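Request: Have a read of the protein record below and say how the chain folds.
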Amino acid sequence: MESSVLPAADIGALLSSKFICVKVDADNPGPAEKVLGQVKGNTLPFYAYVTPDGKFISGTSGFRSAKTFLADLEGVMKNDLLRVPPDLEKKLAKMADQAAKDAEAKKTAAVLKAFRDAEAIRGFSDSKDKIKELYAQAVLDGQQKIKEAADLSKEGKFEEAGALLSALAKDCKGTEVERAAAAGTKAVDRLKSAAKETEGSAKVPANRRLYEQIVKECKDAPPFVELAEARLKE
């Protein structure tokens, strides 16, 4: 299982995003003995699936092929004990519909709020997954705008780049994009200062220092780091 099944990309992604995995010593299971005792069979490895509050869902004994193990995981996620209650699912469905409309209207802040609100509701839900997809797309769009700001800076359009990053930080508050926008803003300031320096040889070291600062301090905004590195090679 550890060499040929668990490393599979689709299985690893599912386990890391939907499950909390605990490895138990079969000879000394400790508190897990009560759960493992409910698994039918006597061939290792045992896989037991429980709810966050410890209720037993199902279990398997022995080797599972990648296809079978993936089916096991998907089946567990469909168990009623782990699904969002029907009343909350209706609420999430409405949230997903509105989030889709907000995404189409480029209302990024509203999409991010919907994601945070949905994540606060415990349980698996198709509507939650839709909102998560919209969130992921919003993050990708934000990262693309970081690149656009770097391209504007490359052309010397620092005011436009700064305005783009400022709006982005506001819309994506509390996300990795906000951190990237903050790093990008710092980089824009450094690039703007470098542009003001004269091209005389006495000023070259000052420019180099500014570019080195971007490389060192603005790692959350890779497009700006790439721009600074390119300038250092000129």
Remarks:
- The longest strand covers residues 56-61.
- The chain has a mean pLDDT of 92.
- The two ends are 52 Å apart (CA to CA).
- The chain is about 65% helix and 5% strand.
